[in-house]
Amino acid sequence: MVALGPITSWQPVPGPVTTWMASDASRENMAKADRDPLPPSFQQASHLRSAFGGRALGRPQPRLMVVSWDIPGTCDIAAMTTAINAHLRRHDTYHSSFGFQNGNIFRRTISDPEQIEFLPFSYGEMSVDDIREHALTSTPDTLDWDCITFGISQQSDRFTFYASADHLHIDGMSAGIIFLDIHFAYQELIAGRPVIQTAVGGYRDYTARQTAHIADMDLSSPEIRDWITFAQDTEGEWPSFPLELGDTWTNNNGDFITVELLNGEETAAFDDACRNVGARFSGGITACAALAEHHLTGKTTYHGLAPSDTRMSGVETLSVGWFAGLFPVTVPIGDGCFGDVARAAQKSFDANRNLANVPLDRVLEVAPVNQLGIELPTKPMMMVSFLDFGKIPVAELWGETNFGTYGDNLSRGGINLWINRHADRTTVTVSFPDNSIARDSVHRYIAALTEVFTDVARTATEDWIEEVARHANSTAAPTMTWDSHLDEIVAK
């Protein structure tokens, strides 16, 4: 199973550590690079402002993703150095640095990628805890150009490789691309074969395309209108975690928890249930999130946010950068029939996915919010993500190499969910503020969510599926009754 969790759950092998960092010459080259008129992407701009504000307040913001896997044998340092530098030169998100002047963000860009070079530095023996701390503390800040480092820890028969990267330059898909680039390049190099890498679309191209796409949007643009309609419908209750989170200001510590929602048999049954009511797994997940929130709060309409990869198919499929955007979903609960809720969820999910190309920040720029008839969110917004690892060709290799992605233990005060379908199970990972109230609320939420998922899977018996098929052409929707024990969980 692919790991996703906090840095404390990362299990690198203990041993001598080597870390690759930018050379002094590379830092000088970036400092002397010309100003670039291209703005950051909207995702980067938001992240940079958060980092800038956090620095002013002395309050670090969550930012680092540690991507890790194991490789057999003793690391060939020269080959790994070549693989790392080839990766850095291939992806142009790493070729720019950002700064602030009079509150405005500016960019510098190195024109020749060959001017970028990362060098290995030895750090001696480290324990597992020491390696975790080193991966976080040795990686420069968001506002520094070289906010990514690479490293290995060596044992006698294998070594753990990691990349500690600021979110400024990577999203979830980028973690897998880092693996593809570096792992396979290294294997070719130690076998004595040249590394042949195909060209990839640049993040600069994406940023320019995003900037041009949204520059002329106004209140008459369909995407802007759709976002505004969603915001108006929330009536100030933007997608956020439905339970109390306690004091999120005293400290900004965060944590993760991963729980199995469905085993392998239940996952297959849940998939069948979704398909037999005219939805897919994504619609079923959204429906379950909507029903869990309904049972916890009584809300009759679910408003959610989901991420979507905005890479241009083919051209940017293997490009590193922060391409992911959020889009809204609206799901009426009705009488709580899973079929009805799942179909409505799938319809909203599919219809609104294109809105991931239009950042919410841009929507809020077109006019003052009081003129738009919307209320700004008062709580951190919550994202519900879904990824099917079965659709990723290298997922089996990930399992064999102990591949995982780990976040730093920091929080912005909100909650995010990642629901992942693995070969033998479906899991949910939740990030949350690390305090007792938030932890209890997350446990309560996961209990409700698990009950909804398992009820769907268990109700998807052969007889029920046959009944659905028999009435597929009927206007009457199949019904599903929710067990009373859900109310007991909510009451706890």
Automatic annotation (TrEMBL):
Q: Could you tell me which species this protein originates from? A: Mycolicibacterium rhodesiae (strain NBB3)
Please list the GO terms describing molecular function: catalytic activity
- InterPro entries, per the entry: CAT-like_dom_sf, Condensation_dom
- Tell me the superkingdom of the source: Bacteria
GO biological process annotation, one example: lipid biosynthetic process
Any idea where the Condensation domain is? 68-363
Pfam families in UniProt: Condensation (PF00668)
What name does UniProt use for this protein? Putative polyketide synthase component
